[in-house]
Please model this.
Amino acid sequence: MGDGHGAAEEARVSGLLVAGTTSDAGKSVVTTALCRAFARRGVRVAPYKAQNMSNNSMVCHGPDGRPAEIGRAQWVQALAARAVPEPAMNPVLLKPGSDRRSHAVLMGHSAGDVSSSNWENGRRHLAGAAHAAFDDLAGRYDVLVAEGAGSPAEINLRAGDYVNMGLARHAGMPVVVVGDIDRGGVFAAMYGTVALLEPADQDLIAGFVVNKFRGDHGLLRPGLDDLERITGRRVFGTLPWDPGLWLDSEDALDLEGRRADGEAALRVAVVRLPRVSNFTDVDALGLEPGLDVVFASGPRDVADADLVVLPGTRSTLADLAWLRSRGLDAAITEHVRRGRPLLGICGGFQMLGRTVTDPEGVEAAPGSSAEGLGLLDVRTDFTAEKTLRLPEGEALGAPASGYEIHHGRVTVGAGAEEFLGGARSGNVFGTMWHGSLEGDAFRAAFLDRTLGHGPSGTEFAAARERRMDLLADLAERYLDVDALLELAREGAPAELPLLGQEFAR
Model:
């Protein structure tokens, strides 16, 4: 089960790996919280995730000044760390296009596809690049807070792992395991995670963090004491459930609406495409008072909406077919016929045009094509070359900015006018700019024009900062941050007990 990375243990760096018992256990939350808490102490800290599998990404600048693409979660964690986001913080980004194939982004730029059939060979190449990026970051920052992926106890994948224990072994880095108690079974999951690992991996598991606890901590304490006694490892704290903690999401596991208070709220229906990407585009709408943001998957869900949003997608043609199979195409067309506004973003915008073609097989089979919804006079042609931009401009009388990540090339016809890298006709708006609604001035102008929703004074960037500070405040109160920082600097304790070796062979 070893991976040959142990030789680097003698050159241990100051860092901490935040692993999880499962996906969505809270790794991103804890990593973000520690980045901000360490930064508050004057530590030069940076986030890192060797491999992220997500269709939520962001554009930053690479060391050569060119635009580059990284996972949205690492971009946010860099802000929490008060560091400049860069590709080395997420050297490998896999963007799923189907159950068996993902588009690979290596150090911020397209690197072809990785499929289940070439997974092992592909990972060896990616592992070397990921660990080189980690070593580079480690030479420029005091402490790295690395986020794992899934669970480190996926023993069927351990031989090629470079994201969890493979990374920890590469760097001689201690590991804390996060468990989501809200799901139930957290004690068994934490013990089992350690027990399934080989001895050299167990030597780096320093302790645990419990996430999403609700209720009387006195009832939890006996279980924590037993976990510490049985495993010989410390519980570094218990983070409580807090509804104000939502951050820019990494994936669709926590895709939920943002509900407004009161019955008079305007309803925003965001179509929940199967391969949705960059759905953080609507986060800013969720912060607006008086807007009720819900995710829609059927015609009924959009029937009474005041505004419909078609978000981005990793597979425009496949999700366009899904839209039609559910009757959402007719429901959206009826919504527009009734004079109500519609906003399409990136792939969602491309669906609103006359045709979508993929001659080179970028997202679908070569030569694939389909008619769009015909609500905008545009056509989209997919090409292998990927566009990464950080554009700025003006729309609806307000300054606007965003970021572009796409393969599709859009041609605007005479029946539409240009709009934020896209097109507009009447109350139908289409843009290629992700993140444009995060701009307070543009968002206010758009909502006023489409919904008569007056300026609320909501400042999105300030709200994000408050959420990161809230995370750090909770970490300071409920976790032993000083002990975790010392752990990152000093490494895992010596002679940790070995668990469950009847399983780890």
Residues 255-458 form a domain with the Rossmann fold fold (CATH 3.40.50.880). Confidence is low (pLDDT under 50) at residues 1-11, 250-257.
